[in-house]
Amino acid sequence: MRISILTVLLLSWLVGNAGRISLYQTTKADCPAVYVNCPVSCESDERPCTFTAVVKGGEPGRKLSYSWVVSKGKIKSGQGTETITVDLSGLSREERTGVTGAVEIGGVDKKCGNAVSCTTAVY
Questions:
Q1: Which of 35-39, 43-47, 79-83, 87-91 has the highest mean predicted lDDT (pLDDT)?
Q2: Burial 34-50 (b: 16+ CB within 10 A, else e)
Q3: Do 21 and 119 form a contact (C-beta atoms < 8 A)?
Q4: Which one, out of 29, 51, 94, 110, has a CA that is 20 to 30 A from the CA of 58?
Q5: Which distant-in-sequence residues (6+ apart) come within 8 Å of 65 by Cβ?
Q6: Confidence of residue 46 (pLDDT cuts 50, 70, 90)
Q7: Domains parsed from the chain with CATH numbers
C-alpha cells in the first residue's frame, strides 16, 4: 500500500492501550511509522508526565537517537532515549492549558518524517 503524507490522530484505547493518544506520521511506503504516545492528561502537581517515541518498520537494525523538547515543565529524565518523564510541578493556573512533547529521531530519513509531537491537557 503506497501512502503519501498521512497524519492520523489515533485513540490508542481503541486498539487496547486505554487512556493513551498517539500521533502517527509516515510519508512513503518504505518509511517507518513514527509517532509519540502521550497520556490523555497530566496532573501538574501529582506525578510526572511520560511521552514515548515509537518507530515501527523501516530498515531493521538501524541505530536511533532521540532529541526531545517540551513546551512546559522540565525533562526530568530520559533525554536521548525513546521515553521522557516531564516534571510539571509549579505551573501556574494559566500555564495548565496543555503540554507538548516533541522529538526528532536521528536514524530515520527526514524525507520519511522524523519529527513528531503529541500534546496533552494539564490539570
A1: 79-83
A2: bbbbbeeebebeeebbb
A3: no
A4: 51
A5: 80, 105, 106, 107
A6: confident
A7: 6-122 (2.60.40)
Picking from 35, 29, 28, the residue whose alpha carbon sits closest to that of residue 10 is 35
**Spatial separation of the C-alpha atoms in residues 59 and 111, rounded to whole Å:** 14
Distance CA 3, CA 98 (A): 31
Burial class (CB in 10 A: 0-12, 13-18, 19+), 75: middle
Which residue type sits at 86?
V
Q: Is 12 helix (H, G, I), strand (E, B) or coil?
A: helix
Whether the model pTM is above 0.90: no
Read off the amino acid at residue 88. L
Indicate if the pLDDT at residue 5 is higher than 60: no
Residue pLDDT, tens place only, 65-103 = 999 999 999 999 999 999 999 999 888 888 888 999 999
3-class state of residue 55 by DSSP: strand
The cell numbers describing 86, all together, are 516531564
